[in-house]
Structure formats: structure tokens, C-alpha cells
Amino acid sequence: MNPQEGQPSFELVRLASGAWAVRDEAFGEIMHPGCGPAVEAARLYVEQLRLAQRFAAQQGREVVLWDVGLGAGANALTMLQAASAWPVRVRLLSFDLSLEPLRFARRHAGRLAYLAGWQGVLDVFVEGRGWSGTIGEAKVQWEFVSGDFAVRMAEPDLALPAPDGIAYDPFSPQRNPELWTARLFRQVFRRLDPTRPCLLATYSRSNRVRVALLLAGFFVGRGCAVGMKEETTVASNRLEWLDRPLDVDWLARVRRSATAEPAWEPGEPPGPLRPATWEALRRHPQFAAGPEGASR
Ligand SMILES: C[S@@+](CC[C@H](N)C(=O)[O-])C[C@H]1O[C@@H](n2cnc3c(N)ncnc32)[C@H](O)[C@@H]1O
To answer: Which residues are registered as beta bridge partners of 91?
Structure first.
């Protein structure tokens, strides 16, 4: 069952860092539980998606950002804040089951520091009509795409602008198994524009998730440490856009792992790599071109 089909219910929680965050009671998870919404959104998503570089390079052309799991809006607003310093056109698509988490956050804007100054924008956005206007130097079109992201991605008639950056922030695979499958990542990858570099950042460092991204066609690298997380993940349709691509040593470890086979359907239990998965990884251009090959 979709947990948000019941009565949505949220609470504010104080993190060890002192920052306030939103807990979704139905899912049983906190949004940005590590060092809090503002720091995580900036470090994990804005920096790793190289937004300053994208905005600097793409003045005059629309920059398209996908915000998967709008939630309480920290990633969306932090990305818009980053854009405000640049004379760019930004189209931000926020995906979620509903606007309820953002409405809750709006009602508690006094405690959620990252919402300061955004109340006027949010008052319009939470009505479900989106928001467009100027923020600092940037011209912004912010839209809400409602519904189950996995279902929406599979809709052939859903025309969406191809993203330059994807902040991928669902709940954990335990709570959101439908959003971490190789099948879904493949559908996302097919929506990229092959002529434009795209970066995807996510907090997970799970081998299963990384293998799923590789099978979908992404190149995959290690992401920064943030909060309690020693590492996160960055993926791209360009190998050269990754600072720390996964290497053949990682691949060798994954081959020995008892749990690295990704889920193709939600809820599939982990297991060792299937022969077809191993073959696909071995032939993936990220590894096939390596000096030692990937056969060991
Ligand atoms: C970790 S929270 C996102 C936090 C948010 N990025 C922020 O900065 O505040 C995960 C979000 O994913 C949403 N979600 C869960 N399942 C979903 C699904 N199948 N499709 C779309 N969104 C989903 C939840 O409603 C929740 O708001």
C-alpha cells in the first residue's frame, strides 16, 4: 500500500546538529537525517550536481533540474537559491506523491531555517499551480509532477524535459523499493538527452543501487561524505564528469558479494550477481576500457 494514501502525518524532529528536520510518520523516516536539510541539500546535491558550473556554462540556455522526492522542499529551494546568483533560465521539476510534506514544512517555516524568505513562493506552489518568476538573477519555472515516480516514468505519453541534473532523494530501499530498481533507472536514463551531460546524485552508497545505475546505462562514481555517511553516489551519462568513478577493484568486490544483484522489480531480495548481470558489468564502458580489463 502506498503509505500516503492514509492520513499523511508529519512531525518536526531536532537532529544532533541542532537543525530541525521533518519526519514522515507513515514512511517512518526523517528527511535529511544526517546533518540536516540545509547542509545536506547543499553538499550532497547542489555541489555534486555541479550546479554553479552548469549555471556558469549555460547562460542563455534553460537548465533543467529534476528533484525526485520533493518532500519538505530543502533540495528544491537550495537548488533555486544556487541558481539565483546566475542570469540563467531554470526549469525545476519536483516529483512526489503529494504536496503534503511541503505544506507541513510551510506551516513550520519558523523552525526550518532553509525556508526563510521562501514563504511567498511556497504559498503559491503548495496550491498545486507551480511557480514561475524571477529569483535573484535567475528566471525560474518550478513545476510539481504528482504521483508515484516509478509509475510516471513508465508513462510513454508523459513528455518531460530532459534533465541536466537529478537530485535523487526518495526514502530508503526498504521504504521505497519501487524507486530503486534497475528497471526504473533504465527508464530515467532513457529520458536523458544523449547530447547533454547529466549528473544524478543520491545519498545511497549501496552496491545494489550502484549496480542498478550501471545496468541502466549510467557511469557511476563515489560521492562525497556528508553527515554520518562516509560516501554517497554520483552517476552521469559522461564518464569524464565523475570525480571518482568506480574502478575494477570495486567491480571485483561486487562480483564476490552475496548481495549485489539489484532489484528489477520492487521487493526482489538481494543475492549474488546473476551471470547476465556480471556480463553486462564486465562489458560496461566504464570497466571494459580499464587497463586491466574487468575479467579478474
Ligand atoms: C527523503 S524524502 C525527500 C526529502 C526532500 N528531498 C527534501 O529536501 O525535503 C522522500 C520523499 O519521497 C516521496 N516519495 C515516496 N515514495 C514516492 C514515490 N513512489 N514517488 C514519488 N515520491 C515518493 C515521499 O513522499 C517523500 O516526500
So the answer is: 64, 141
Domain CATH number, residue 192: 3.40.50.150
Looking at the DSSP bridge assignments, the partners of residue 95 are 68, 145
- The answer to pTM > 0.85 is yes
The amino acid present at 220, given as its one-letter code, is V
Within-domain flag for 75 = yes
Q: Whose CA is nearest to atom 21 of ligand 1?
A: 96
Reported confidence tier of residue 34, pLDDT bands at 50, 70, 90: confident
Strands (E) across 169-285 are located at: 199-202, 219-223, 232-236
Report pLDDT for 6: 56
Q: How many domains does the chain have?
A: 1
130 located within any domain: yes
Cell triple for 44: 550532497
**Distance between CA atoms of residues 219 and 241, nearest Å:** 9
Q: How far is the CA of 173 from the centre of ligand 1 (A)?
A: 12
Give the domain extent around 74: 32-244
